[in-house]
Structures are given as C-alpha cells and as structure tokens.
Amino acid sequence: MTTISLRIEFGGGLELLFSNEKRHTLTLPSMVSSDNNSKTSADALSGVNTKPADVEYLVFYLRDHLLQERPELFMESNTVRPGILVLINDTDWELEGEGEYVLQNNDEIVFISTLHGG
Amino acid sequence: MVSESCGNPSVETEAIMSRRPKYDKSKFCIKCKLNSGAIIVRHAVYCKECFPALLSYKVKRILEPQINSKPELSRKKSLKASGNLSIGFSGGLGSTVLLDLISRIYLSHRTETKKEEGVTKPRGGKDHPRNEPVWKMVSVCYVEIASGFPGMSDKTQKIHQLLQENYESLEFIPIRLENAFDLSWWDKVGGKAALDANTDLTSDELFVSTAINSPDSDPVQKLRSYISALPTPTAIESAIHTLIRILLLYTARSTQSSHLLLGTSLTSISIKLISSISQGGGFSVREEAQEEWNPDSKGAVRLIRPLQEITLKECSMWAWWNDLLVVGKEKYPRGKDGIEALTKEFIIGLERDYPSTVSTIARTCAKLAPKVDAAGLCILCERPLQPGVQEWKSQISIRATKEPSPPSHSSDPSSVLHSLTSYLCYSCHTTLSSRSSKGVSRNSANTSLPLPVWASTHLQGLLVDVAITDMQPNLKEADEEIWLTHKVNPDEMKEAIGEFLLE
Predict the structure, then answer these.
(1) H helix or E strand, kind and range, residue B342
(2) Hey, which residues does B173 pair with through a beta bridge?
(3) Can you give the pLDDT at residue B440?
(4) A82 touches chain B (CB under 8 A)
(5) For labelling, which of A28, B94, B253, B284 has a CA lying 20 to 30 Å from the CA of B387?
(6) Among B96, B312, B320, beta carbon nearest to A11
C-alpha cells in the first residue's frame, strides 16, 4: 500500500486544539475508506468502498487522531467549521476543489482560524 | 449535467447536481491574468502578487476622501490632515492588519518596512513636497479591559512589546477601561469635572442620583459595579464596546488627532450592524461605519474604519502571508450567550456559503438614513439621540404593572434625583433596562449603575440648562426675549439647582 507524506500547519490560534503544536508531519495511506473512517485497517479496506485520500478525509483524520479537545471548534457538518481557512500549497482550497482535492505526496495543508476577533 | 432518464422516480438513479464553482470564469488572477490564483475574494480570483494592491486600493478608497478637512474635488490635491492620527488597537486580527496596512501605505518614511511589494512607491522620492507625511504624529491606543473581569489576564505589556518591536516610531498610549470612571483621566483629556452620578436600574425611568462625595471613588470598583449591574451578557458586551469607543475618541482628541482609525473588517461591520439593529441601534446605523465626533464642540475627530470593505478571510490571508503576529482578544465571560456572539456565528457561516450576502448587509445599511433629525446626543454613547424614544417604548410593551416611584435616598441628603431616560438613545436605554429571558429578577443584587465621567458631565450640563430655564418664567411673558448665557462653575451650578436639593 502506498503512502503520502504531508506537512500540516495550524494558525490563528487553532494550534491550541492540537497540543499547541503549529507544525505536524503525517503519513496517510493513498487509498482510504470512502466513509472517511480513519480507523479502518489496511486489510479491511478491501471489503469497503475506497477513494484516493482527499482533504475531506484528512479533516476527519485530524479530528480522530491529532485533536486533543473541543472537536466542535474544528469540525462541523463533516467539514471544517465556518471561520477556518484552508490553504493547499499556499492556495485557497476553494480554488482546488475544497474537500475533494486529492492529496499528493509532500503537499502542505494549512488550517487558519479567523476567529481571534478584530 | 444531463441525465438520460425515463422520468419514473422508482427506477431513476439519484440526479446529482454539479457543484456550483466558488469563482467566476477561470482560476487565473482576474487582475494580471497571468498568474494562477491563490485566493478567492467573493467569486473573484487574485494571485499572491496582486493581492497587496487589492487591499491597498480598498483602504485608500475608504480613507483618503476623509483625510482632508474638506472633501477634495480635485484628485491632484495632496493629502494633508488637519491634526494627528490615532489608531485603535485591540490585539485582534482586524487591528493587527489595519496597523500593518496603514504603516505600509502612509508611514513607510518613518517605519522600517519589511517589504513594500504591491504598495506604490512615492513618485519623485520620499522628500518630494507632494510626499509630505499626511499626519505629523501617529499614536497607537490600546484599551485594556482586564480590570473589569477578575481573573482576566492583562495584555498591556505584551501589546506594548509587540508594538515596540514592529512599530517603534509610533507612540503607544495604553488606556484602561476603568478610566471611564476616573476623574483624573477625565481631567487629563480636557473633561469638565462633574458630580458622581448613579442610576437605579430597577425601573425603566432609570432614576439617577448625584452625590458630591461618593463613598466608592475607586475607578476599578466603579467599573466592576457598572458591569455587575448590567442586566444581560448582551448588555455587558454592548456597554463595553461603547466605553472603549468613547475612551479612544477622547484620547484621540487629547493627542490633537483629527482621525481615529479602527480595524473593523467588512465581516465585523456586518455582525455589528445586525447585532446593533437587533438591540435598537437603527438610528445610528451610519455611525457604525463612520462618524464625525464632536460632542462638545471642542474639536472634531473623524472615526473611520478603513477595512470596512475587506473581509475577515482577506485579513486572515494577509496576516498569514506577511507573518503578522496576532495577539488576540480576551473573550468576555458568558460572551457566547450574547446577541453579538450568536450573530457572529450566523454571519461567519453565511460568509462561507454566500460570501456576497455579507457585503450586501453592509452596503444596504450604508444606504439607510433616519427619517427624522436627531434631538441632540445620547449622554452615554454620544451618538445621535432620536426623539420620542419613551413614547414609542410605552406603546410597544408593558414594562411595569405600577407607576415607578423614585427610590428614597434618605441616607444621603445631598443626592438629587432625576430620570435618565430622556437623555439616552433607544439602544442605550435598552441596554440598561433590558430583561433577561430568565425572568424579571436579576442575577446580581447590584442595581445601582455608576455613570461614566462623560455621561455625568453631559447630564450635569443638561440639568443646569433645565434648571435655569425653569427659574426664568417671567421672561416668557415679556415682549422681548432676553438671552443670557455664561459659563458656570460647580458652585454656581449647585446654587442654581439648590432649591431642588433635598435638605
């Protein structure tokens, strides 16, 4: 099974939900369960529908494996909460297809919260 | 997407609507048409190189027509303000971005900028007369609110350090929220001394009593008393916003500033407009965007919000791409229960799915104007006071089952009782007299609200005017009107209203 290495960064205070660490490095399988279940083992994947790992899956993965507290501040209705910007390789994810963008090896995904106040 | 189907719902596969693209036309930058886009701003695509010029243009479009005292008809006239510049800084995203943009666009001759990409360099060099600084002096003002909430951390030092590291040539002016109840601060910014005044919040008449020697003159205690007396979390947030704004305005004037800039983004303005209107602030909807403040004709300050056409998303991207450190703002206790927090949640959600709707809120409100003229200024928020507030309120709801009576103050023979209601705008009256949804009974035992220093001064001035008018009934019957005006000192004021004091 091939894997994808990703650089994840959190900004705007979002890092407080992820062990106060701004930068993380992840390795994800290139093919994942279509229902975004990140706990499905590699063997069990053959029995379920699969898809290439995309940003939608990444968000679920981060919630299930890296998030320390308050998941409702990160995710809402199966996507990132409103007020959180996502950059894929320094580009607005709305230009790359949002959750449907298929992750590539060495991609950099940044999650920035806009809700500091201002 | 066209699907071939027989129209029979029992055999038809689910028709999937194609996703509506979040951008018009192509993924290339709408400005240069060369680079791939990096950000979508309300359906328009911009590259990273063109983005700075977009923000710069939006700031100048709002700010520059308001810089010179008189609107300039000629575009060639140079920008020259009549006074200095004050920038309100809260530590939040908007004010961080505002300070950075203003510094790059207008103050680059006095600050060391990291880079000026996208910002037009001055033609003829920085010493050309055309490129004289717009404002002679620039100060950054920060209002610390921590004293009002036990346990909240004080960020003054952190903010001072941040500003020293990044904007060392700008003067830092720290202000504290309790200054609103501090006579020494009031004197320093040129305010007239006033008697201590407290308002009783148990009735809608908001009876106010004045005392010469207040038992509790510590500004921090008065601030905490003010906050604890406010009836709801919404009222607390609204009242604090007002205190901050007025503190900044008086401070700006004391530094001979002709302009005060605040970092309210388009998103924040839309939130504030909806939140304010829901609390009865419709009469001052224009002032939410911009206001010319001069409550006592001692010198006007223009309060401008240069980021009012820039969304929170754009501010966030600017801060990220330029590595700006955002200190952040403290949240009020129970703030999430207030109207503003609920409105913010709604607007932020709306902005993600329907970005143009948020700008529509601000643009629509900008077209509104009150039908009637203001009847003076509210003594609390110093915004236009609409006539007939109490008549309207008495028509739309029953607030009390019996006539309100002034509270007795027999323990303080020097106190004077008046109703505050006719001196407050609808919004401020609602803030002070609102009822929690949990019932009429208040959570806090404290129902006596000390008035901020400016409100006491305005009230005193207005009561003296009323007293002088009442003392001269004979003139109404004379053939000729005789007007005599002179400035009164505190002793004369006391003498003028002496017959109304309870001895």
Answers:
(1) helix B339-353
(2) B141
(3) 44
(4) yes
(5) B253
(6) B320
